[in-house]
Amino acid sequence: MSASRTERLLNLLLALLNTKVGLPRAVLREKVYKDSAENDVAFGRMFERDKVDLKQFGFEIETIVDRSSFGNDDPGTTRYRIGKDSNRLPEVVLTPAESTVLLLAAQLWERAALGTAAASAVRKLQAAGGFTDVDLPAGVQPRIKPAGQAFDDVVAAMHGRHTVRFGYLAGSTGREEQREVEPWGLGSRFGQWYLVGWDRARGAKRFFRLSRMTTAVTAVPGSSCEPPAGFNARAELDELNELPLRQATLEVDLGRLLALRRRAVTAQEPATGSPARDRVVVEFRDPEQLAEELASYGPRVLVQEPADLRAAVVRRLQAALDFHTSPAVAPTFPDAGRAPRARKRTSEDQLARMLQLVPFLVHHQGLHIQEVADRFGISRRQLIDDLKILICSGLPGGYPDDLLDIQWEDDHVYISEHLDLNRPVKFSEDEAAALLTGLAMLGDLPQLAGMPEDQPGSALESVTIKLTGAAGTAGRLAGSVSGQSVAPEQSQSFATITQAVRDGQQLHLRYLSLQKDEITERDVDPLRLYSLDNTWYFEAYCHSAAGIRNFRLDRVESLAANGRAASHTASTGQDFPARLFTPSDDDVLVTLELTRQGAGLADDYYAERTAQRPDGGLLAEVRFGNAGWVPMFISQHGGAARVLAPEAVHTETGTWLKASLAQYESAAGSVAG
Predict the structure, then answer these.
(1) How many CB atoms lie within 10 A of CB 572?
(2) Predicted TM-score (pTM) of this structure
(3) Are 375 and 384 in contact (CB under 8 A)?
(4) What pLDDT digit, counting tens, does each position of 168-215 carry?
(5) CA-CA distance, 439 to 405, in Å (whole number)?
(6) Exposed, middle or buried by CB within 10 Å (0-12, 13-18, 19+), for 400?
(7) What is the CB neighbour count within 10 angstroms for residue 492?
(8) Burial call 351-378: b when 16+ CB within 10 Å, e when fewer
(9) From 390's CA, which of 79, 127, 142, 351 has a CA 20 to 30 Å away?
């Protein structure tokens, strides 16, 4: 849609909302469409399209027929209107404790489709005036990490009720197959995201792990589907049995990979015929999950058995090398800054934003224009463009009192006439799913991240009830998305750190440093805890390194207060979310090419600049604290990323990949697996 069409849709909505008896087509054509339609036929087509567009925003247009007229279906006597309560968000009033819990649930979705939906849902509650502005509890930021672009694509297909098609690596055969599936639900189990749906080729319900999808997920043109009545993703995923425990035999370079060695189930012994290596046996359940880790270790580890794990590692390394040696592309960034991975902003986005903006301004009179723009995640220029359209929109009469009245004097925004747009529209299905699924995932978080002991359980229950009621039928999709609890497994460390953050106490810890491959001892000032799924980290000022560092809880050997007060504390103004990587002057700036499936890595690793590729992939500039990490990163992501620059890092990565694969060569010289 063009901006003029956005304005026409807004005027049509205002006209139909502000009439009791309805407006005939002739009035709508003259007052709303004006010169947009050349004749009655063109107007008719345009009006029907606009009715469909307004219905997508949830506004049902009533058709009123004059029964006394000669023909009951005479378009000349037919009138149209929208009820004032049509698709309005019901009143939701939240206590400060409920608002805090809801904000935690909304910010679980750091990015991806449900992240945008959660932010939009919170803005609607703020616009309705029932949401209390609160700060998150000090020091805790739980987050989940959806499974890349496939997650977004499946959510969009479920929302639109479309069948999807994708390439899939079958676990039973190890072969890549094309699948066509009716998507019923998404859920997380055993550290992996799964799609539950009806496999059309097999005529049966199947579970598909998103990490095994080998191509982009695409909607089948013209398709439609519906999940079974009462479908619940959590209940369906409860049917999944955890994979059996197995053992892997590995050869590991002497003195390397301490984290892997600590998981050994048998005493280490020299590898047969290789005095420079130890033979290590570790337990695992999922060969693909372990293969991702082992591939990152490159030539430092060799998988002896089992065969499927060995093949999975080789496949990742070979895919990485194939991408590495494919024809290079020019690493150009035509636009400064980060390019959006999603589709460009459209007029639909603008109209949806306006329907939130007007009620938000009604309940937040006099806010600075930049603060309003920040709340909506747009630039000052975009906000002013929205306001310019709004002040020219109104009722068909076109008189001054019939227009939306918005002023921004001295950069503070006021609204004195809202024309019944003073309440936001109801939650969409993805907005309801983002909030309700997030609330369910918070259930086991200890004391809901530092809230008083008498509040968290009751606040979580009450806000869930309120949001479920407000969502109504839009809550359908919430039953189709299920995530695992974000509660940390290292509960004692979690409690010790949260207490130290609240009390401003310093901690002494023994920590397994993956970079140094050794146990280190440090004194740190803890700042905050945060998670990616159920893997928890804490950010702290490290006195040994004289800088901010991030520590994984599952690599902490021991920690306790050392009796000294912390000299560094977290402020409420710190960026959300906390970063896994803290930039420094010694970083290596690497230009990467990411495939469409790997495009999410640009967000995961805080790319400084990105540029969209015609195939849906990205060019991305990413900082690495150490150039030695880059080959490990490329190996781990097996064909989803490659290095374009600097040339030295590109060359070193190629050498690493070739050395990694060389050790798997059979006597005949072909790659095993």
Answers:
(1) 8
(2) 0.73
(3) no
(4) 988 666 688 999 999 999 988 887 889 999 999 999 999 998 888 888
(5) 38
(6) exposed
(7) 11
(8) bbbbbbbbbbbbbbeebebeebbebbeb
(9) 79
